[in-house]
Amino acid sequence: MGGDDDDDDVPQLSSHTLAALKEFYIDQQQREGTKISQRFKQYSIGSIEEDWQLSQFWYDDETALCLAKEAVLAAGRGGRIACVSAPSIYQKLKEQDGKDFSVCILEYDKRFSVYGEEFIFYDYNNPMNLPGNIIPHSFDIVLADPPYLSEECLRKTAETVRYLTKGKILLCTGAVMEEQAAKHLGVKMCNFTPKHTRNLANEFRCYVNYDSGLDHDSSCSECT
Length: 224
Known about the structure:
The chain is an alpha/beta fold. It has 6 helices and 7 strands.
């Protein structure tokens, strides 16, 4: 039997069916695009609004990205990162969709429980009230941003940080807390100056206890 006869035996889809299939595939692509977009928005800074009564002030996008990249670099490949009272940094880390690190958020505000198993309820007034599966010194780096500029808040948060970290600490707090930060966590002020989405009356700074890119420049250029 000739080639033309073989072609005649191949079933042909009607133009209506082809149009329906094309519409189906376009719809599938749009749905997938929507899922990706929704995931991005879920973790974008501001998707959960600041609650000033909880002393919440989000970092601006550039600062959050810089600190997130610094945490990933410090944690190393396959590293574990803990964000203590630092939800905007956690969100920026999740936006990176990194496969080479894991991260969890320790936070008092239960709105952040939407992030599932990575959310751990945390009250600095009870610094050691942590889930049983959080074993000591199990995080390669701990990034902490105590909610209040007080010695008590920093001291209690520091207790949690020391319990969690294998060694590396990245602290974000007011410049006025420099002496207390050194006393309770052995950290030193970096050159880098973090910025918030809103102008705050108190100057904020970053502190570390390891050789960090944040100490090389006051801008974010070393982190990007």
